Amino acid sequence: MSEFDHQAWNWDADAAKVERAERVAEAIRVEAGPLAGLRALDYGCGTGLLGFALRAHLAHVTLADTSQGMLTVLREKILAAGVANMTPLELDLTTGPVPEGRYDLVCTLMALHHIPDIDGILARFHDLLTPGGRLCVADLDTEDGSFHGARADVHKGFDRQELAASLLRSGFRAVRFSTPYVIQRTTDHREESFPLFLAVATRA
Description:
Layout: H1 3-7, H2 15-31, E1 39-43, H3 49-54, E2 60-65, H4 68-81, E3 86-90, E4 103-109, H5 118-128, E5 129-140, H6 160-169, E6 172-187, E7 190-203
């Protein structure tokens, strides 16, 4: 089992994660709206916190992840809530083919820094969007590695200008950034702040 499989069962018990997803969802509604009637893909969805925060504003949400533990919790949540416009999907865009379906909105929250090939995943997001569709990426600004610790094999956040250039290379336009949330975390016995950006771009 992966680290995320083990964390899935207690993921929603962290009030900060719930608040983070709600704040990012609010920013998406403002920055990428209107959302009514749109079909969305939430990639790296985890237990679906972002998707649940957006679902009332969308026609349908496909929630994709690679973690079986996260998807199991997500399926239980969808069943318990009696939700009809959410579909869980096991999907790894870094190794598998792009699904046939296309979306009006692709969003991802705190997943991009776990993906080694940024240009590659952005190109796949582009392929999954309908013409004029919007991509919303929420992740960490550049940090010194203390967020995950020195041993973690992840990106240490992202420089906004460099990410904007990657989005443009991948066929997006009208790239803009906002800061919907700041994560507070204790690292090495000190309190640190980690700003979270929301990048919104349009498929050309």
